[in-house]
Write a structure and sequence with these properties.
Blueprint (H helix, E strand, L loop, with lengths): L2 H8 E7 L1 H4 L9 E6 L15 E3 L5 E5 H9 L3 H7 L4 E4 L1 H8 L1 H4 L4 H23 L4 H20 L10 H8 L5 H19 L10 H16 L1
Parallel strand pairs: 2-4
Antiparallel strand pairs: 1-2, 1-5, 3-4
Helix pairs in contact: 7-8, 8-9, 8-10
Length: 226
């Protein structure tokens, strides 16, 4: 079975991500598609296993096999968790709807470490840009602050909301280079402090609900085998 066939015939969920999902789209914004497919169970019985992810077939399209997607989500991977909460669903079937119904099972206070860890990595790259070129890549600076604000609100409320809402103007101004790097850097530091404070009293559980997610995966694999 080819990768194109897996995407065409076995996708259970796909959504639009990136600036369009975050409420930050402009006329020049791409449409980033992310999805989840279920490789038929008999393919896992072979020596050559099905792919854990597929790039394409369309431009700006990327998909994960269900098990890999669930593993990453249980590890609080920011990109994966955001896929589960996109307001722009492009394609979904009954299995996909059951996956979305499990969204809260993947959430835990581990998002504090993973979101901040990713953000710190981005911050180091931006600081290197400033040293080498005198300015950061502003789109990446925008994404860094957006991610921290999203994590802060997730830890405070227990809900992951992608649309930036009232922050749209400030974030677009950052992307357009309308603010100095020291000013943006101060906003990032302030947001990071707010994330740390929110983590201390977050309503999120300490760990994701592994048993519930595993039960779903086994049922999907069994149904596919039959």
């Amino acid at each position: 079975m080819t990768p194109d066939e897996l995407i065409r015939d076995h996708t259970i969920y796909s959504c639009v991500m990136g600036s369009r999902a975050f409420g930050l789209a402009t006329e020049s914004s791409d449409t980033d598609l992310r999805g989840v497919f279920v490789a038929p169970t008999p393919l896992h019985w072979r020596f050559e296993k099905p792919p854990t992810h597929i790039d394409g077939p369309d431009d700006e399209q990327f998909s994960w096999e269900l098990e890999r997607f669930c593993v990453l989500a249980l590890r609080a991977n920011p990109n994966i968790l955001e896929c589960l909460h996109s307001p722009l669903v492009e394609r979904i079937d009954d299995t996909g709807r059951e996956l979305l119904a499990l969204r809260e099972a993947f959430l835990s206070r581990a998002v504090h470490q993973t979101f901040v860890g990713y953000s710190l990595g981005q911050l180091k790259k931006l600081e290197a840009d400033v040293r080498q070129h005198g300015a950061p890549r502003w789109k990446h600076a925008q994404h860094l602050l957006r991610l921290l604000l999203s994590c802060r609100d997730l830890l405070r409320t227990g809900e992951l909301v992608l649309d930036v809402g009232d922050e749209r103007s400030r974030l677009l101004a950052i992307r357009n280079g309308e603010h100095s790097w020291p000013k943006v850097e101060s906003w990032v530091a302030s947001a990071a402090d707010e994330v740390d404070a929110a983590a201390l009293r977050s309503p999120l559980p300490a760990e994701p609900d592994l048993a519930r997610v595993e039960d779903f995966l086994v049922r999907v694999r069994r149904a596919s085998a039959l």
